[in-house]
Amino acid sequence: MTDPMVPAASTALGAEPVGPTASPPDRPSLPPGRWIRENLFPNVRNSILTIFAILVALFAYRGLLNFVFSEERSWIAVRTNLRLLFTQAYPEHQYIRVWVTVGIVMVLAGLSAGIWARWGGVTLKRLMGWLVSGGALIAVGVLIREPSVLTDAAGESVRDDAGELVRESFAAAMADRWVWWAIAIVLFGLGLVLWSLFDDLSRRTIEIGVAWLVFGVPALLVASTWVIRYGHYGFVDGEFIAEPAQLVAMSTRVPWTVMWLLLIGCYGIGRLARDRAIASAQAAPDAGGDIEGAPDEGAQELPRDALTKTRAIVNLAWVLSPFFLYWVVMRDPEIDYAHVFSTMLPMGLAFGAAGGAVLWWLTRSDAGEVGRLAAIGLLLLAAFHWVAAYFGWYSMLQVARIAFLLLAIAGLFAPNFAGVAAQRRRLVGAWLFAVLVVFYGATVINSPSTVETPTDMFIGGFSVTLLVSVLTIMLSFPIGVLLALARTSRQPIFRVLSTIYIEVIRGVPLITLLLFFSGVLPLFLPDGMELAELAAAILGYTLFSAAYLAENVRGGLQSIRRGQYEAADAVGLTTTQRTGFIVLPQSLRVSIPPLVGQVIATFKETSLLAIIGLFDFLRMANSVIPNQSQFLGVRREGLLFVSVVYWVVAFAMSKYSQRLERRVGLGQR
């Protein structure tokens, strides 16, 4: 499999150029000795700093290795409780729902990667550097790690007369670590061999498609579960099972293999669809017979329009997938179909038909100010329903209030779709789809779950951490953009309200907001209205993150020059069109680094969920596992594992941000 969408100066090893956005080649490489002299030891002061930094790094590296491989560490606690760490106490007999959830994510990830496919690549020079440095790092670790403790026939550590642990000799330790030596030699040797096979220009210009790394590394990990005996650990009917010399259970190996196959298969499908669309677009001019002139727009637009629609469908699936996977797949709601056919279905049809008729009327070319006044009236009516709910003036289903609010918002956007019949049908179709999603979502959310767990939350651990972070990012981003636009608006009322909200939220600690929405806000809700712990957490995180996102976006908005606004006004764009097509795309491009930083901070801040009673990833490792009778007090191993997972996710987002910045040319033009 090759990745043709790689910005390189050569097409070797599955790489090919992507056009003018490709990065220029590096400067000619220096010989290793000269590079070390110029970068590490150019003068006395830098030489002292280099030596000091190396000693500090070796000291920290040695301490980490001695901690991880210490005989006092009980990593069996982490191996045994992997399911608990990731999904809490989700019933084993319904675990197929977890794998279905992961499978749907793999399908969407594969399709997205294949359809976009502009991943870039890694130069041979960098890949060789990774191999050589990885082998050297492993070799140094083998050398500096302290020798292992001797054990007796019963497996107990041997101590001398003074009570100190007796360790094996240095030579015996080096011999026992032959596997690590072999890995280090293979990596180091492979890097040197590749270095000798290519000249300097080839090493700097030939690139390996990132797809080889993204799909190859998981493939090796999945394949290793079929060969390497990692051991079988777990709780079966409450009984602790420890089988160190066994392969990983089939219930784990088979699903992960299927997940990788789904990922790579859907990636191939997405790539095939994209390549066919591009090939059809490129072949369209030849079919039209126009050799020197412009291509036939009708023939070329069809495949590109199909590709654009496919991307839009995949994006929409990503937006809806967290809600569908959590409330439908994982939760397995028990739907009351009598209530559906007697109440929800007629109400949904009524809102769909009446709302569609209203929007069709508002998008008339001659609606004018009357249409805008009608849209404002809908907004006031929707606001009145929420005020009436708070004071308990009359009863109304919550889904009806939400539908009225969505109709009012659609009515405000209606003038942008006025005139053209195709645009009017598009708005009405979007409204019907929104009604379907809202009423179906209200039905499944209000239906009781069939999943029985020891706690009120049927999932926990990393699953709830990921759910809260994803929903927070999805909900806070549009709110933050609206707040940023309001704060830079010429309308004083919007500017003042947005400024007050941002400054108040930024001046309050996050834990205060979480405690308020979890424990204080439910006291002010009307009778019969409740706020679940998960909803309270997501609400607190969303409002907090939106304030910071608004400031990040506002910085991007202020970077847009006044001439951009004047040019948009000169061509007759409306305020909405100017903001959506001119201002926001440029400001969001500039705001990529701080936005990704806020996303990473939001993901890490989910570790505060334990304070309001949710069993998140950190709480599982810090409180639940150490209280198990088999692993009393075993806490450090779980905390280190959680830290590594947090770092891997944050590092992946950071690297993707850097690649996205290069793709859009941030800092280059």
How would you portray this structure in words?
The chain is an all-alpha fold. It contains 25 helices and four strands. It has a two-stranded antiparallel sheet with strand order 1-2. The chain has a two-stranded antiparallel ribbon with strand order 3-4. β3 (232-236) and β4 form a beta hairpin. α10 (210-224) runs antiparallel to α11. Residues 1-23 and 287-302 have low confidence and may be disordered.
What tags apply to this protein structure?
globular; two-stranded antiparallel ribbon; 25 helices; single chain; 4 strands; 669 residues; mainly alpha
In short:
By secondary structure, this protein is mainly alpha-helical.
Backbone CA Rg: 30 Å
End-to-end separation in angstroms reads 33 Å
The sequence of SSEs as H and E is HHHHHEHHHHEHEEHHHHHHHHHHHHHHH
Class by alpha and beta content: mainly alpha
Largest sheet: 2 strands, antiparallel
SS strand fraction:
under 5%
Record the strand order, biggest sheet. 1-2
Q: Which spans of ≥5 residues are poorly predicted at pLDDT below 50?
A: 1-23, 287-302
What's the total count of β strands? 4
Mean pLDDT: 85
Helix content: 55-70%
Question: Which geometry do the CA atoms define?
Answer: globular
Contiguous helical run count? 25
